[in-house]
Write a structure and sequence with these properties.
485 residues; alpha+beta; globular
Length: 485
């Protein structure tokens, strides 16, 4: 290319934040500026990855465009697909299908017909992935093109949209699509939109998981509310600032400040971020977890590392309130070494938790599971159940649940919603009341072996604790009784 042609090529940039990524294309030759922003939807009881594509006419004339915007490939959900997608991906397509939340193309639902397994029993799958798209400022949902062949033809690399070489977007939407027994796409179809010079449109898409296809109209109503996507984007940024406020750093180098923030966030996701539950009054708020037995330390987000270079690991975070997943002992211990420094109110919790995993022979299990809780006093269970509920029926249900054995916080709220428990207080107040009367039970499993080299991490945990509470060393070492695994 000569210099003039080189200058006319579009410029592409990528920006990465703590909970967002943006890809920008500046095409001065055609007078079009495009930005695609991704972020994870915060603070909802359904999950979604949000994509916002903004197209701006930077030219001097009106611009009429049609477009397919979205994902070239969207895998369904249903069962444990980690191994199957990597090893029998083509065979697995036999179970895949696209279903619909209504009689339009606006609510596709990507799921497996049954759970793929070599078993005599057959499990019907109900959960699936969804794609919901719309142009911000408009009322109607956009039709979704899910038939990959309509877009890419026989270009199985999904790099050349050969289907668009012979058909328009309108043609593809108007003709039948097929989503059975193959991997599908998720493209929002935008047809013949005219932009004046300087005018923009934003195509917003939500990709997530729902328990059943019947949930899609409710989710669509929520996410398509005017201003919802932009408000959630701002909240996602605020939330990242709140979660990383413990390491807020101000230097002359903003990249260094951001690196500290991101490092803390990544480590917190791996080992979990400690929160204090059971904070009920001024006395509890002025105490740490060692001083007030009502206070419980709970690590949200904890999970096994799921980084791309180690794809043999499952990446699991339960889709519940107060979510906590499993992690390898050494990983979790490593990432909780400095918890007491950033969150002094947890006291000696981490030290005692990991020391309680030692077996009589000195070995420890591989996998640390989410902590479980138990309410041992039925009178306390009855008191709290009546305190946090609006009617006697709901109180009886909660009393039966927490009195029936061990539980996890996220499971409680899932059950409450399924059964129809009517709370008279906020979810935060309810869990604080329940945790205050509970005892915690650290959980671990064999995994793939027992290990004898974990003692190194004990020293790190103890040294971190004594750096904050030097006067607590003697009591921790000699006055604390612990169970063994």
């Amino acid at each position: 290319l000569d210099t003039e042609e080189e200058d006319m090529k579009p410029t592409r940039n990528m920006y990465v934040g703590t909970n967002e990524m943006e890809i920008e294309e500046i095409d001065d030759g055609h007078g079009v500026h495009t930005s695609v922003n991704y972020f994870v939807l915060p603070e909802e009881d359904f999950a979604a990855l949000v994509r916002r594509t903004t197209i701006t006419n930077t030219g001097d004339d009106d611009l009429t465009l049609s477009a397919l915007d979205g994902l070239a490939k969207l895998e369904p959900t249903g069962g444990k697909l980690q191994w199957g997608l990597k090893n029998i991906g083509r065979t697995l397509e036999g179970w895949m299908g696209v279903y619909h939340g209504d009689d339009t193309l606006a609510l596709p639902f990507y799921r497996m017909s049954t759970e793929p397994s070599d078993s005599a029993s057959v499990k019907i799958e109900k959960a699936g992935h969804y794609c919901i798209s719309f142009i911000e400022g408009e009322d109607d949902l956009l039709p979704i093109v899910y038939d990959t062949e309509k877009v890419f033809g026989w270009s199985t690399t999904l790099q050349e949209p050969t289907g668009l070489f012979t058909k328009t977007v309108s043609d593809i939407v108007a003709n039948p699509q097929y989503g059975a027994a193959k991997t599908s796409s998720a493209f929002a179809a935008v047809e013949k939109v005219t932009l004046s010079p300087g005018e923009s449109i934003t195509i917003t898409s939500f990709y997530g998981e729902a328990e059943a296809v019947e949930d899609l109209p409710k989710i669509a109503k929520i996410v398509s509310t005017e201003g919802y996507a932009s408000d959630k984007f701002e909240r996602a940024r605020e939330l990242m600032d709140q979660l990383t406020s413990s390491v807020e750093t101000h230097t002359a180098n903003h990249l260094f400040n951001g690196a500290i923030k991101q490092n803390y966030l990544d480590n917190s996701l791996r080992g979990g971020m400690p929160v204090i539950l059971g904070d009920l009054d001024e006395n509890s708020r002025a105490s740490n977890a060692d001083e007030d037995s009502r206070l419980k330390v709970y690590h949200v987000f904890s999970r096994i590392h799921g980084d791309l270079e180690r794809d043999y690991n499952d990446f699991n975070i339960d889709p519940t309130y107060f979510s906590q997943g499993p992690g390898n002992y050494r990983d979790v211990a490593q990432n909780r070494r400095n918890d007491v420094i950033f969150s002094p109110r947890i006291g000696s919790f981490v030290v005692k938790q990991f020391l309680s995993f030692i077996q009589a022979d000195g070995y420890e299990p591989l996998t640390v599971e989410a902590v479980a809780y138990l309410v041992e006093d039925p009178n306390q269970a009855a008191r709290v159940a009546s305190t946090i509920t609006a009617d006697s029926k709901s109180a009886s249900i909660i009393q039966a649940i927490i009195g029936g054995g061990i539980f996890r916080p996220g499971q409680l709220f899932t059950l409450f919603e399924q059964i129809g428990v009517d709370l008279s207080v906020s979810k935060q107040r309810a869990i604080d009341e329940l945790m205050a009367i509970s005892t915690e039970t650290p959980m671990a499993v064999y995994g793939s072996g027992y290990w004898a080299d974990h003692w190194e991490y004990y020293l790190d945990l103890i040294e971190a604790y004594t750096s904050v509470y030097p006067d607590g060393e003697e009591a921790l070492m000699y006055d604390t009784e612990l169970r063994y695994f």
